[in-house]
Please model this.
Amino acid sequence: MTLHIDIPEETFGSILAKAFRNTAFVAGFVITLLILAMAVVSYGWTPYDVTKLVIADKTQAPSLAHWFGTDHFGRDILSMVMVGARNSIAVALVAVGIGMGVGVPLGAFAAARGGLVDEALMRLNDLVFAFPALLSAIMITAIFGPGAVNAIIAIGIFNIPVFARVARAGALAIWPREFILAARAAGKSSTQISIEHVLPNIATLLLVQGTIQFALGILAEAGLSYLGLGAQPPMPSWGRMLFEAQTHMVVAPWMAIFPGMAIVVTVLGLNLLGDGIADILDPKSRRQR
Amino acid sequence: MNLLDIENLSLTIGDTPILRNVELSVAPGEVMGLVGESGSGKSMTALTVMQLLPHAARATGRVTFDGIDILAATEDQMCALRGDDIGMVFQEPMTALNPVKTIGEQVAEGIRWHTKASRAEAEDRARKMLDRVGLPSAKFPMSRYPHELSGGQRQRVVIAIACALKPKLLIADEPTTALDVVLQAQILDLLRDLVAESRMGLLLISHDLAVVTEMADRITILRHGEVMEAGDTARTLSEQTHPYTRQLAQASMHVPARARPHGIETGRPLLQVEGATRDYPGRLASLFKRAPTIRAVDHVSLSMTPGQSVALVGRSGCGKSTLARMILALDQPSSGTIRFHGETITGKSEAELKPARRDMQVVFQDPYGSFDPRQKVEKLVAEPLHVLEKKPTRAERREMVAHALHEVGLGVSDMDKYPHEFSGGQRQRLSIARAIITRPKLVVADEPVSALDVSIRAQILDLFAELNQKLGIAYLFITHDLTVARAITDEVLVMHEGKIVERGRTSEVLDHPQSEAAKALVTAAPDLHRAIAQRMQEQG
Model:
C-alpha cells in the first residue's frame, strides 16, 4: 500500500521566522549583537587611546567629552569598556565552552551507566570542586606559565564539574521515564538514548546554567587579572576595571558603575537569548493545535 | 432540605468555558455520584464548591452549602468551612500527604486549627480517627511517616484527615483510581460506613460507572461541562434513556468481537519462562547492615504460543511489571531462563538481543509519559526500526510509519506532530503503532488501557483485538482490571506476591476462581451488570 505524503517539513526558514516573532529572542539577540559589535569596533576605533594616561583628566564625572567619565589615570571609561569586552567575552565564552563540552558528556555518561562508574566520576568531580577556581588557576599558570590562554583553560576546568553535575541531575530525572524504557525495548544503546532523548530534554537546564557560568567566568577572569595572571595591563578587562574601581568607589562611582553595567547587560542579553532559544526549541510552542 | 445545592452554575477559565448550567444537589446522608470522562468538568465542579479554583476562573450561578452562599463567601469564611464542614479526598495518595510530617501531625493539624483544641486533645481525636479508618495504633503509631505506608494505607490517612471533624459533606475526587481493585473495594467500604455513621453527604467523583453504581443513591452524568442526565442510580442506568448514558454504559461493558482461539496449543512455543526469579537487594540500613533481600518475582514459569493472548493479573506490587521487564530483556533475572523463539535471551548482550527485539515490543500504561516530548511522531513511531537488519531509507521509513499510523486509525498528517498535540487515546494508538511497526510476534502491554476513559478504552481494546486477528500478534496483557482480561484474552495467569498462583482459561478462572488471590480479585472487581442488578434488587 502506498500512502501519499505531502506534509511540509519544518524548514530552517520557518524556524527563523518563528524566532523573530519571539520577543525574548529578538531582545537577547540585539543586545548580544551590540556587545559583540562593540568589541569588534574597538579593534579599529575607540574614542580615546586606552593606553595613554592623562593624569590631568583623572576621575572626571561623565560628560559630553567622556560619556562614561574617566578613571584614576585619566583614561576614558567608555573606551576601556569597549576594549575590555574582547577579553571578558572571549574568556567567558571559551571557559563555558570547555565546561559544557567536557562536563555535559561526563554527566550524561555517569547518569546512563549508574553504579560504580557514576560514583567514581562524581567523586572525581568533588575533587575538582574542592579546589577554589583561583587556586587551581594559579597552579596551572605556575606549571604552564602565566598568560591569558592558560587562564581561560583554568577557568574552563573549573566549569567542568558544574556542568557535569547539572547534566547528571537532569539526566537522572529523565532516565526512569517510560519513553526511555520504550527506546531501550527498541534496542537502542545508552549512548544513542543519551544523545537522542536525554540531551534534548535537559537542554533548557544546561542553557540556563550556561548563562550563569558565563557571568561567573567574567568575574573569575577579573580575579585572575587582579593577580596578574589574566590579561596583562595596560590591556583593560571588565573584571579588572571593577577591581580597580573598589578603592575609588566614593569619589568616582562611575568607575565601577559602567563596567558593572556592561557585565549586567551582557549577561541579561545572553539570558534572554537562552530563554528565547529554549522557547523556540520547545515543541509545545511550535505549533498551536 | 439539601446540604449542597448547585443551581445554574457556569464556569469559565480565561476565555474557555468549563461548565455550563450545572445543576446538582446532595442531601445529608446521601451519596451523589458525579460521572464523566476526562475533561468533562467533574473536578472543576468539586473545586468550585471548595472555592479552590485557579485565579483566572469566573463562576456564575448559585452554590449553596448549608445555607451559605459559597460563591459570595469571603476567603476567611471558606477557610472556616474547608476541612471542618466540607472535607475533601484527592485521587493521588502519594502526593496528597506532606512527606516530612508524621501521619499523626497531619490528622491533628486540621483538628487544632478548626477547634482550637489543645495538642493533647487533638492528638487524642486524631488517634481515634486513625483507628476508625482502619489504621490501629498497635500497628500504625501516629509517628509513622507517609513513605512508610502503602498506597491504600495512605489513602486511609487522607480520608482520616478529611473526616476528622465529622464534616457534613465529603467530596471524594476519584478516591480509588490510583489503587488496585482489592484496595478499591476496601476504601469504598470505608467511605460507605462513614456516610452511614454520621449522615454525611458524599459527592463521589469517578470516571468508573461500576464504582459509582455500587456506591451512589443518585447519579449525575457530566459531559463537556453540561449535565447530560441526573437521577436515581438504578433507574438511570437500567433504563438508559439518554443516549450518552447508554453509550457510557455500553463502553464500560464492551467486549471486542474476536473470532475465538485460533491456532492455539499448536506449534513451537513462542515464549518460555522457566523458574524466573528476581531479587532486589535491600536498602543499606546503615554502613554495615542491609535490609533483607526483596524477592519481586519467585520461580515463575510460563509459556505462550504464537498468536495467543494471555492476561497476567494481580494486585499492585505483586511483581507483574518486573516479570514483564525481564521478558522484554530490560531487566535480568537473578536466576531462571527466558527463551524467546527457542533462543535464550537471559544474559545476552544488546547486540545479540537484536533479533529478539525485532519480534518483541511493548505498550506502556501512561500515554503521557511514554513519548519523548521533544520528538516528532515520525521519529517516535520509527524508533523500533532501529533493530532491523537493513536500515530503511528515509523515504521507506516515512512510508512504514505512515502505514503503521494508518493501521491504528491515525492519519498520515499526524506524522509531523508532537506528542502533546494528541489526546490520551490517540497517544495510546501511537504507542501501539510504535509497537507493531516491526511486525513483532509478541507485544507486552503493561496496563495499556487503565489510564483511558471508558469510551476510548473500548476503542483501544477493539484495536488490540483487530490487530491480534489481522497480524497474529501474541499479547501478554498485564492488568489489575478483570474486565480487560475478560474482554481480550484466552488465558489468565494470576500472580500473587511474586508467584503465579492460578492459571487457566480466562472464563474459567474469572467465573470459578480457586486460589485465595484470584477470589479476592474477582469479588473486589466492580462490575456494572452486577451493580445494577443489586441496586434494582434493593429497591424491589
